[in-house]
Amino acid sequence: MTSATRPLLLSNVRLPTGEAVSVSIANGHIEALGPNLTPPPGAATEDGGGALLLPGFVEGHTHLDKTHWGRAWYRNEVGPNLVDRIENERAWRKTSAHDAGVQSLALARAFVAAGTTRLRTHVDIDTDAGLRYLEGVLETRHALRDVLDMQIVAFPQSGMLVRPGTQEWLERALAAGADVLGALDPALIDGDPVASLDATFAQAVRHGKPIDIHLHEPGEVGAFTLKLLLDRVEATGMQGRVVVSHAFCLGALPQPEPLLERLARLDVALLTSAPPSRPVPPLKRCRELGVTIFGGNDGIRDTWTPYGTPDMLERAMLIGMRYDLRRDDELAMAFDCVSTAAARGCGFADYGLHAGARADLVLVEAETVAHAVVARPPRKLVVAGGRIVARDGALVGALISAT
């Protein structure tokens, strides 16, 4: 992301603590926060009207390359199993006019308009598509490089060992610009958790890339895979560089505590979309033990699911509902899952509301963070990298027609 070209003073806003401040922004970063700041020379000025100031939102897990956002309704008649969904999607992509570049750009722009300034997306890499979907999403990342900090995960959606040749395509994806190595259900999809995890960790270490693994495996099977994964984190020194997405097994085990304690000790983060139909990792206990747990939408309007919107306040609300978070401090915890915790889990640097942080800011008409999560008001103003990119939920300037 490049720096903004003109300083900006954002006045008359309220921090989540309730303090009324101004924000001085230069070179794309926050220079100062405090009452009655003087505008820097040549600065643009913006009166926040007493609105609540939030840091730019973080989408920790989505699939931009799959979405139908903005297209005609997709009639979903897929079978109930994971393999059904994988096969259905592969077949549909072969026969439809779906364009990962066009569709990822449409959804990414909608994310920005709703206040997301950092985003991690998984992109399918397989022996049918090669790098086609990755190339489309790389184009989107380039088009929005000044306003959206995007990490791309090279994701073997159809499995790795079970589809010979996939490892070689993953190598090419990492060389082409993917930031993170993905993986999927080493036991139930690849059929050999030891060999699958060994291959994934060897590849990640060789390329110096972090790992983000989809772990849908339930109960004891998932726990077994997770133990193997943690063994490899410890053996390879990849503490702080691994995310386990979904981790449904942790919500089904009668005694998850030993695994949670080990996750904390090895600094392995967890991602949850807080689905209503599956077990979920215990949010409060994770936080008590020091496990980074954060949120994401997963797929949005694709062949897998008709649900989802690119609004991280809505995702925070859904996290709150799934975990029965009702108190204001608990709803602030839900917001943390799509802000500070997500930035930490994904490794996005210079994040937050403090001097030196990158100037990614969102203004909303809300009394508190809890109020913002529940009411999900229109985004009054979105600032990304120090420049105003959206007003009242709509993109502004060159972003209106960006392609």
TrEMBL record:
<dbReference type="InterPro" id="IPR013108">
    <property type="entry name" value="Amidohydro_3"/>
</dbReference>
<dbReference type="InterPro" id="IPR032466">
    <property type="entry name" value="Metal_Hydrolase"/>
</dbReference>
<feature type="domain" description="Amidohydrolase 3">
    <location>
        <begin position="46"/>
        <end position="390"/>
    </location>
</feature>
<protein>
    <submittedName>
        <fullName>Cytosine/adenosine deaminase-related metal-dependent hydrolase</fullName>
    </submittedName>
</protein>
<dbReference type="GO" id="GO:0016787">
    <property type="term" value="F:hydrolase activity"/>
</dbReference>
<dbReference type="Pfam" id="PF07969">
    <property type="entry name" value="Amidohydro_3"/>
</dbReference>
<keyword id="KW-0378">Hydrolase</keyword>
<dbReference type="InterPro" id="IPR052349">
    <property type="entry name" value="Metallo-hydrolase_Enzymes"/>
</dbReference>
<dbReference type="InterPro" id="IPR011059">
    <property type="entry name" value="Metal-dep_hydrolase_composite"/>
</dbReference>
